[in-house]
Amino acid sequence: MQVLQHSEHTLKKALISKNPVLMSQYEKLDAGERRLMNEAFQPSSDLFEPITVHSKSDWITSHPEDPQDFEQFFTDHNRKAPCPEKHIIYMQSIGHILAFLKKKKPKDAFCIVGITMIDLYPRDSWNFVFGQASLTDGVGIFSFARYGKDFYSSRYEGKVKKAQRTSSSDYSIFDNYYNPEVTSILLRRSCKTLTHEIGHIFGLRHCQWLACLMQGSNHLEESDRRPLHLCPICLRKLQCAIGFSIVERYKALLRWIDDESNDTSGAAPKNSSDQVNLKKPVEAFKDWREWIIKCIAVLEK
Ligand SMILES: [Zn+2]
Ligand SMILES: [Zn+2]
């Protein structure tokens, strides 16, 4: 195992930059927020750790690309940021999305993300994908089928006996497909993929600074290894794109973990048969919960 240890100087420059405008912008941030983000370059930080490389097949060794520091993010002209007219991230279950996406995205949508438990390319001859997003259209579709614990085991009986699509617009053939059990591991993996991909829609490139949600990943094992949180450099990018108080954000994440059941009050259509009241399995979020509490302590010190 190799540890990618950037120097204090490199991380500080990636986060704060040497650009006087961005430096003074950083100085104007709330003192607690700066204290938390400065953890990026504290060698003894127990909140933000260096990236570890476990094998040659890991993303960072097999996909060399330029790292993106905050200044490069900030000055990227292709970067999309929400505006008051388009500021909502819609999620739509797949049963509806194929028809739905043909129509216009809601006017206030920053992006719309389709999610499904169905494997997106279920035939042997096809390569599968975890998800696909069009950054220019602000549209994405993700499958969580391969995140279930049984997918790669012999218990997986993925394909229906016979795929019988009656017409090109009929997607009911998916009805018999494998549906993984909704476990807390699956929920955590799904949250990671969704937030990682939505991060790309906001213009965040793959992170090469610290262990971070925005690290690229080549395989499930590597994806499991990357944390659910953003490192300070990516956190500053996201904050710049959306604008939020970090402490309020972390408290909202805590509320989401601690909230007993699924929140069905969102954009889901009323009276939909898809709306099931499942209990949210959050055991796999325990460590992350502790991590958030530590961050809030730093923010409110
Ligand atoms: Zn990515
Ligand atoms: Zn990062």
Automatic annotation (TrEMBL):
<dbReference type="InterPro" id="IPR052009">
    <property type="entry name" value="Archaemetzincin"/>
</dbReference>
<dbReference type="GO" id="GO:0008237">
    <property type="term" value="F:metallopeptidase activity"/>
</dbReference>
<keyword id="KW-0645">Protease</keyword>
<protein>
    <recommendedName>
        <fullName>Archaemetzincin-2</fullName>
    </recommendedName>
</protein>
<keyword id="KW-0862">Zinc</keyword>
<dbReference type="InterPro" id="IPR024079">
    <property type="entry name" value="MetalloPept_cat_dom_sf"/>
</dbReference>
<dbReference type="GO" id="GO:0006508">
    <property type="term" value="P:proteolysis"/>
</dbReference>
<dbReference type="Pfam" id="PF07998">
    <property type="entry name" value="Peptidase_M54"/>
</dbReference>
<keyword id="KW-0479">Metal-binding</keyword>
<comment type="function">
    <text>Probable zinc metalloprotease.</text>
</comment>
<dbReference type="GO" id="GO:0046872">
    <property type="term" value="F:metal ion binding"/>
</dbReference>
<keyword id="KW-0378">Hydrolase</keyword>
<comment type="similarity">
    <text>Belongs to the peptidase M54 family.</text>
</comment>
<keyword id="KW-0482">Metalloprotease</keyword>
<dbReference type="InterPro" id="IPR012962">
    <property type="entry name" value="Pept_M54_archaemetzincn"/>
</dbReference>
